[in-house]
Specification:
CATH superfamily of the largest domain: FAD/NAD(P)-binding domain
Largest sheet: 5 strands, parallel
Structural class: alpha/beta
Strand content: 15-25%
Strand order of the largest sheet: 5-2-1-9-19
Helix content: 25-40%
CATH topology of the largest domain: FAD/NAD(P)-binding domain
Number of strands: 21
């Protein structure tokens, strides 16, 4: 009996899984012993990390997009028909068009979405770079900015945990280059009692912020934004004035996860080593969709995807488990417009950011260019 692998979600993690399975199960696919199908929402694939550079004019919009069909292995049928209901008991997925897809193995890669509407006034009063339209508006706002108070406001949960630090350092460097930092004040807010969720990263960040004169307000859980008064207030009753508000909006998972009763907030309870949905033996969860308390980042998705590829391929060909996920994450961190550092960690080894350098900035730019090879599963 042929094994059917169904991948729900056409982003980075789902695409890596599909392409990797094609390489490992090529013979089985030729012999009609295994089939792989993907359900997605759009015919384009966006390089989301590139949005960080768009407000500063460091990337062209055309560089962010490719045809999903060209990124995905040609042997994988790709249907632009998003999942509407995922039935893990019946081993089937119903799509928005009303079609039903059965599976032997399911990979849920539905990702995350920004929810600025969850904070009163945020949509009207803030700028962000987590989607194309937001990055465009932020680019226009920066071009018009001539000095004043900038607040970089971080909300949780959110993906790419180092992005708030990156945008703060890049803002400082960008405005310094325009000769505006002598009349600009940057304040960074974070919802817990330090500057980053990972303590070693927080400890590294504080002296870096102090060096550049970047102010910070911890224990700042956003309550509301007042666009007319240009203020942002916290549940802790702190109010900050701003001339430009840059926010990391709160995120949630996909609506289909909540509608299918698979996890509160759209996050699927997931085994931290197996990457199986809790309670399932044939439902894998990858990337932002998991509720595992580690970074929701591209590298996390990549390392998780590699683990899932090995396990599904092994289950299909040998009926056995291959390996567990060790929590590996690797992230470059921009510390300005021309310097960078990086963090590497897993479940047992904490991160340890090193001194920023121009070389590491160039390494990150090179790594960015290799994104499409990663999506195709070639790295």
């Amino acid at each position: 009996m042929a094994k059917n692998v169904l991948i729900v979600g056409g982003g980075l993690s789902g695409t890596i899984v599909a392409n990797g399975l094609c390489r490992q199960l090529g013979n089985e696919m030729r012999n009609n012993e295994v089939s792989i199908t993907m359900l997605g929402a759009t015919d384009t694939h966006m390089y989301q990390p590139g949005l960080l550079y768009l407000p500063f004019g460091r990337i062209r919009e055309s560089e962010l997009f490719r045809d999903q069909r060209k990124v995905l292995d040609r042997r994988v049928p790709y249907h632009i028909d998003p999942a509407k209901q995922i039935d893990v008991e019946g081993n089937q997925v119903v799509t928005e068009s009303g079609k039903t897809y059965s599976y032997d193995y399911l990979v849920i890669a539905t990702g995350s979405r920004i929810r600025p509407e969850n904070v009163p006034g945020m949509e009207e009063g803030a700028h962000w770079f987590y989607d194309l339209e937001g990055a465009r508006k932020m680019r226009d706002a920066l071009e018009a900015f001539e000095g004043g108070k900038i607040v970089v406001n971080v909300n949780a949960p959110h993906k790419c945990p180092v992005a708030p630090l990156e945008i703060t350092f890049m803002l400082h460097d960008y405005l310094s280059g325009r000769g505006l930092m002598d009349k600009t004040e940057i304040t960074y807010t974070y919802p817990i009692g330090r500057l980053h969720a990972l303590e070693p990263v927080a400890m590294w960040t504080q002296p870096e912020f102090d060096k550049y004169g970047i102010k910070y307000e911890t224990f700042f859980n956003t309550k509301e934004v007042d666009p007319a008064a240009k203020t942002i207030s916290s549940e802790e009753e702190v109010t900050l004035p701003y001339d430009l508000l840059v926010t990391i909006p709160p995120h949630s998972g996909a609506q289909v996860i909540e509608d299918s009763d698979l996890g509160a907030g759209g996050w699927v309870p997931t085994g931290r080593e197996s990457l199986l949905r809790e309670g399932s033996e044939n439902v894998f969860v990858v990337g932002d969709t998991t509720n595992i308390p580690i970074s929701k980042a591209g590298s996390t998705a990549h390392f998780e995807a590699d683990t899932i590829i090995d396990n599904i391929a092994s289950l299909c060909t040998e009926g056995r488990w291959a390996r567990n996920y060790d929590g590996k994450v690797f992230c470059f961190i921009e510390t300005g417009m021309s310097t960078g550092t990086y963090v590497w960690f897993n479940y047992t080894t904490p991160p340890n950011p090193g001194p920023p350098s121009q070389m590491l900035h160039w390494f990150k730019l090179a790594y960015n260019r290799m994104y499409w090879l990663s999506a195709r599963g070639l790295l």
